[in-house]
## 1
Amino acid sequence: MQTKETLPNGLVLWQDDAFFKLGQDSVLLSAFSKPRRYAKVLDLGCGTGALSLLLYRPDLKITGLELQDGPLELFRRSIAENDVEINALQGDLRQMRAILPHGSMDYVICNPPYFAAGSGKAAAGAARSTARQDDNCTVEDLAVAASYVLHTGGKCAMVFRPERLWALLEALSRVRLMPKRLRFVHQNASAVPSAVLVECRKGGSAEGLTVEPPLLVESDEYRMIYGK
């Protein structure tokens, strides 16, 4: 069933139960991401476009890249209804060299598949499973695609599972994407983290990593992100 959701920034998002739907991670990643003014931004594996729409500012030039037809059709419907300038492309990020020019982006955002193939919580249905498990797209694939489109000094931001953080950082560092900001998400101050937000810079040294204060779900900051 298709539904329309109003995002915290007032834009609308068309969704379908057949595809991966808006979750907390995209909202928190959009708040964590800091693209500079007039930046060219790429949303890798954008799905129905939740992250692109959440991050939207009139000065940004946002492009969403999605493999599947269905989510992309809904994304384009949301773009038209919101009357915003976002480019929605169809393509396989593993073939990035044939899609976008090298070094053409300033900032990359991505809410990647959390679970390794054959593990974790498989979502019902093939389309939703594609968004949850990395049997179709590994963290290495994401890192290579992000590094290819970013110029030196460009940045990328992702949200991931804390227990797989090392796998992500290792893949990113192999393609010169050096972590510069980390922030863990917790339900409350006594809970273990449920997610981690990571921002990397292409090129430069491995020094200068900032671990920011934890983001607590049970906090005023969290409610402000959601506009409550």
## 2
Amino acid sequence: MSVAHDNQHVASSADASSDAWVDLQNYRVTGYQHRGKLLRAIWYLVGLTMFESGLPIPSSLKRSVLCWFGSRIGAGVVIKPHVRIKFPWQLEIGDHTWIGEGTWIDNLAEVSIGSHVCISQGVYFCTGSHDHGKRGFDLLTAPIAVGDGAWVAARSTLLPGVGIGSNALVAAGSVVHKNVPPAVMVGGNPASFIRDREPPTAVD
């Protein structure tokens, strides 16, 4: 390819991108339950002080507070400090599940986490994206579900609409963009199959 052709390609690309293709002034927020402004304001303050802070607040109290705000929370759920939850009324967690420090449940859509699940430190549940094919850059939302016995390891990201199968393992730092079958290990960006996950050989 000639230098002249390269320069022409660069010039045409610059012309195509010289004006913004999206109009954020006309951005539309749709697709999730707004609830009332007062309820959201109260939750913001409660979430900031009780969940996002490092205060040593018992998980039992956190479970009760989440239920007051509409979450469905099972028995024995452990919620570490610095956990951020967007909308508690769109959250369901089964029994004896761990939510690790620094987890961000950005649940514009429903997030469902099963029983005996380990969500490690810094996991991000991303339920929202944008329609880049529309000038208004409209909000798109989709739920996330994690099955019983799964482990989502540290610093992983779950993208909108994915389901993590029961007893699956998502390796640390993974970006999951499609459904993960039960009882497999996946990892990487984008997350891909590593191997089958074997059940424990014994119970202590």
## 3
Amino acid sequence: MIESILSQFEISGAFVKAEKWGTGLINDTWLCEYFEGETARRYILQRLNPGVFALPVQVMENIRTVTDHMVRRLAAAGVVDPQQQVLSLIPAVTGHPYVLDASGGAWRATHFIESCSVYDIVSSPDLAREIGRGLGRFQALVSDLQPRLLHDTLPSFHNTPYYLREFDEALKKDIRSRAAEVRPEVEFVNRRRRTASLLMDRLDSGRIPLRVVHNDPKANNVLISDLTGKAVCMIDLDTVKPGIVHFDFGDCVRSACNPAGEDAKHFGDIRIDPDLFAALAEGYLGEAAIFLTPDETELLALSPKVITYELGLRFLADYLRGDTYFKTTSPAQNLHRARVQLLLLEDMERAAPQMAAIIKKNMT
């Protein structure tokens, strides 16, 4: 089936092989190899998860709008080969940026950017700085792209009050009889219910602007050059749509500045590392400060707490529902993930004054 799907994209050369690739929790991904003459070329093929992306055509239209805009910005800035700094879509033979299979599933192909890596765990301030810089540069390149030009492909995505309501509903239904098992986590969530609205209230009041944002800028969605150690580009652009910069900054910090990772083996290792946070904030603001408003900057230090609370809610609700959204490899993995996020949030609360001081320092 993979070779049949690939044949519908504008890829030249002879197909060699395709292997499952990556550690993503949502889409299925393959690394595909072709020979063109004596040259081996590699491509990424992905099938969008239909359970997550109900409007795959709109998802792909958003990606094309964003990547085309970024290429134009880079070219105008004098970058000789801008497609080496932007995830480059390969068109289908129909001219669309996607292929639909017999079941209506959507597939996309992109050029594989060689000599680059992604990191699930951030082990040094230098790497954290580049991950922050990669996110800041992405946001800066799309800062003049009008959000109205993009589809809202995931309504309520990063709307934390919405996820709190979803959690409440999953807890009430308790279809897998797991509620008793998560009583301490429920109490933790309930004590922090006000956290859910801290960002959305600012957006709804017009205090902070709606922008085009990535919406899922985990550490492993920033491609890092093996040769220079520098950020190359953001990948996994399925969630690109209108939002606020705090969705991105908060999620990036949550992912990159906990050295133990989302599936931490030992709860005692979970923490917000101040050195990683300082480096990530420095890299991010070095690119993003030029377009951020004062109100946006003021909320940056708060945003990781909101987004971490949100993801804890989502993992916990998915566990209560029977693990229908996030891929798992063990029966209680989503519960473990939820506990990691809630412990990380607790450490962020302790570190809040230090995080705010770091943001302020990088803006002066």
